[in-house]
Amino acid sequence: MDLGIKGRWALVCGASKGLGLGCAKALAREGVNVVMVARGAQVLDAAAQALRADAALPAGTQVLAVAADITTPAGRTTALAAHAHYDIVVTNAGGPPPGDFRQWDREAWLAAVDANMLTPIELIKATVDGMAERGFGRIVNITSSAVKAPIDILGLSNGARSGLTGFVAGAARSAKLASANVTINNLLPGAFDTDRLRTTFEGAVKKTGQTMDAVMQARMKSIPAGRFGQPDEFGAACAFLCSAQAGYVTGQNFLVDGGAYPGTF
Question: Which InterPro entries does this UniProt record tie to the protein (predicted)?
Fold first, then answer.
């Protein structure tokens, strides 16, 4: 299916690896010009170079790499200045560390809220009005399945991302945006085969004395799909939410978790 977004411009955050890279790939393969943003210049440049060489990219598709920390005002300014305007914005910042809430001080909480709630809000604020003026806009926030099913060791993430979810629920329903074909949705990943997943499992490895492989196998058994997700299939879900066909989908929390969440709603 042609998603109807060829030639659009997208800003994809945290795009050097993992889920952000999966989104950048999926959009570029649809002919979207992608500005990839991440903090690590070396890894980012390598990812961008590999994507430019992808045989699935339509001719003329541009892939730009911008090394910047999107969680800082200076980093956001740099990323937003990489192109005159964006039709698509995929917000994504590394999740805060797992741990025991008893050990987190005020600074840890502020850092989590700044990166995983306030940064996406700042990017939304900077781009939605221009999108509305042009009559097309898609914002996708990569959050977490923990928004629907909180995980005890991910309290910083649970709190910050839930705050973003509440904000999006209201902002996405603004008549000024929704009637102008501007949508804002959240994409909630479950367990995907990424570095972040392994970092989360490290605590269980230390606590139980099991090997990383044993911990991962046990987690896979708890997922109805019987496996971890792959970044490319997450990217495909992102690309759909960014498509012309998804104009009637806004303010939603799209769960991609292999059936792990057991609830009806």
Answer: NAD(P)-bd_dom_sf, SDR, SDR_fam
